[in-house]
Structures are given as structure tokens and as C-alpha cells.
Amino acid sequence: MKYLRLFLIIFLLSKANAAEPIVSVAPLPNGAELELYEDSEGLFALKILEYYGAAVALETQLKSMGIEVVNSIASPTLEELQETEIRTLKRFYNQAISIQKQVQDAPDGLYNNKIEELRAKLEKMNSENFLMKEQIHIQNLDLLSTDFYRNQYRELIKQSDSLRLFIDKTFYEHQRQLWESADNIRLAYDNYRNSVSVLALSLSGNYINYNSDRLDANISPGIAINFNPSPIFGLGKVFDIWGEYDYQLVETSKNAANQNFSLEYKTDYFSTGVNVNLPLSELMKIEQFYLGLKGGYGFFWGTTRLPNTNLASEKWQGQVIRFELCATNFSRFHFPMGVYIAYNFNNYSKDLKFPTAGAAINLGRPWTTSFQLGLRFALWQSASTSVF
User: Fold this and answer.
1) Do 184 and 219 fall into the same domain?
2) Per-residue pLDDT, 341
3) Burial annotation 294-306 (CB, 10 A radius, 16+ → b, else e)
């Protein structure tokens, strides 16, 4: 009865573990899909790790079959995960396909060598059992002592323990490879979380204070482009350059012929400059998102006009000092978007004038302030290579 059970175990193992790959290697991307992987470091790293994980699983299958791997695959390095080189992707794909073909070309199924060994032992045991039965009929039944059966039982236990040890070793080796793959995936995710926005689009609401009772500025929309060349020089988030446009509506009243008239000016405001960034998240040990404080200096210029009149527009210019607090790369919101608030100090180097039918409203060369609240969308991101 025991031999029958062992035979059934060997038969089921050989049928359940046929020479078929335990995983299938995904096809190599091509065309537009390949360009998508070239443009995204995160997707490229995940595809590399997918091929690597499949190759590791197939290597484990070959080792379980007692077959030496012809072309063993090496773990991808951090540089290979970041460089988005197509030849690197093809190399990992070809290695995984080569190992898969080796599995498919194997003569027998999973655990083949071990099963053949057990099958040979089973045939030998069946032969010995047949001879033993003949001896039972020939010799006295007392010759088959309790010790003989005990020894046979212990031998079967040893064989079962050896097979269990081999299966456990193979399983834990496969798990170790999977844990290494998971670590590489986490590393790629951390690299994405610490990425730097090279080019970003900002949309904001703005309020400017002219420090004059004669003018009343409404909240106005603004749009800006932020360019961060720091990653090109390996400096992370050290500095960036901004260019901004604001469309403003300014209201005032004028007394003429003992009557008050309301006037609404339309103002185009342009500014550009350079920001220096201080990583507050590093100083305050914040891991959920990036928090930065920016201080900048630049120049502004613009024009003011009174619509539906023949009055000439007035032009003005000056310098701007800018302070900004921004938050980006939220760990629970995987979308390249951030928020920011900014406060600007504008110093006019040319008189600030608003045209009227009589004498223009001239505020001289004042200091004005403006407050901004907005959203910033990353158009191009790159991995941070700086201590910042």
C-alpha cells in the first residue's frame, strides 16, 4: 500500500509539472509603445524589472529540474533602470527569452531528475518486494522481523524528508529573487518620488496692491512657465528661471464737470527672473511631499490702456523681488502637480501712469506688492541627482 502511494505521488508530480515555462516572457514593445517607454523612466524601469523577474523565475525552474542555466541573467543596476536605453531593454528581453527556450527544450518536466531517481528506487523496491514475498512462502514468517519493517519505514521517512528539503530550498530561493525584484521596484518608485520638475506650467490667481486710494485692482488670472536647468548640471533643485504673464483689471473714478466717472483699465504684466530654492522638506524631515522655499529676483514690464478710447497706452517697467512657498511630489497623489503661494515686491524704475482724458493718473515710482495662489503642472520631470 505504501509503495502504491509513493507511485501515485511520483506520477502526479511528473504530470502536474510538465516541461512548460512557469511564466511567459511578455513581448518586446515596438512602435509608439516603445517610444512611450523611452519617454518615461518609471515605465522603462518597471518593464526591465518585469523581464528580470520572469528570467529569475525561469532560472529557478531550470535549477529545480537539475539543469544548469546556459545564460544566467544579472540584476539590473540603478543606471540601467534610469538610462532608458532601448538596447538595455532588448538585452534583458533576449536573456529572458533565451532562458524560456531552454526550459521549453528540456527533455522532461519540473523536478525531472528527482522524480527519475525516485522512480528508479520505486522499481528497485518493487523488485525487492517481489523477492521478499517469494521468501515469505519459502522461509519462515519469523524471518521478517519487526526491525526489518522499522528500517524500511525509516528509509522512506528519510527519502520523504530529502524531497521536502529540496522543495523548500527551491521555494525560498525563488522568494529571495522576488524580494530583490521588489526592492528594485521600490527603488525606482523612490526615484520617481524624488524627481525634479525641469519644465512646469503654472496657473494662478493674482491680487496686486498699488498702495493708492485712487485705484482698485481686481483678482486677475496669470500663467507662467518655470524652467529648471539644475538637473542638467547635477544640481537637483538649486535654482530655476520663471517667465510670467498676468492680465489685470484696474478700476478708478474721475471727476469731470462735477460728475464722477468710473474707469476700468486693462493691464498686461510680464515678468522674468531667477529663483534660488531652499529644500525645507529636507531640513524638516518631511517624507510625504517636497516642500520648498524660493527667493528670486527679476524684471517686469507692462502696459496700461483704457479700452474703447483713443488714449495712448502707458508703459512702465521695474525690478521684482519674489518669495514663494511650494509643495510638490505628494506620495498619495501620483500626479505631477503641486501648489504654491507667492508674494512679490515691485519697484518701478519708470513712472506708473494710467491714461485719462485730462492729466494722466501718475503714481510716480512706488513699491507695489502682489499676492499669488496657484497650481503648478510638471511638463517634464527628471530624476534628482543632487543632495537637495
Assistant:
1) no
2) 95
3) bebebebebebbb
Write down the pLDDT at residue 81.
Answer: 80
Structure-block grid coordinates of residue 114: 528527482
| Distance, CA of 371 to CA of 344 (rounded, Å) | 7
Tell me, yes or no, whether 387 lies in a domain.
no
C-beta of residue 362 within 8 angstroms of C-beta of residue 353: yes
How far from 210 is each of 218, 222, 254, 261, 353, CA to CA, in Å? 11, 18, 17, 20, 11
Nearest-angstrom CA–CA distance, 208 and 346: 10
| Model pLDDT, residue 63 | 83
Q: Are 354 and 250 in contact (CB under 8 A)?
A: yes
Helix (H, G, I), strand (E, B) or coil at 147: helix
Does residue 263 sit in the same domain as residue 357? Answer: yes
Q: Which helix (H) or strand (E) holds 79?
A: helix 78-82
Domain membership of residue 176 (yes or no) is: yes
The 3-state DSSP class for residue 212 equals: coil
All three cell numbers of 256, joined, read: 469731470
Last residue of a domain, one of 129, 161, 193: 193
Residue 246 lies in a domain: yes
- Whether residue 274 is contained in a domain is answered as yes
Which domain, by its residues, includes 1? 1-193
269 close to 302: Cβ distance less than 8 angstroms: yes
Instruction: Select from 193, 223, 249 the last residue of a domain.
Output: 193
pLDDT at 11: 44
Sequence letter at residue 78: L
Question: Of 122, 126, 123, 110, nearest to 160 (Cα)?
Answer: 122
Could you identify the residue written with the cell 521588489?
A: 182
Rounded mean pLDDT for each run of 10 residues along the chain, 388 residues in total? 44 50 85 80 85 87 80 83 84 88 74 59 70 67 64 77 81 81 64 71 90 82 90 75 92 67 86 92 79 93 88 89 88 74 93 80 87 90 50
Contacts 24+ apart (CB under 8 A), 146-155: none
The answer to pTM > 0.85 is: no
User: Is the distance from CB of 221 to CB of 245 less than 8 angstroms?
Assistant: no
Provide the grid cell at 108.
Answer: 522532461
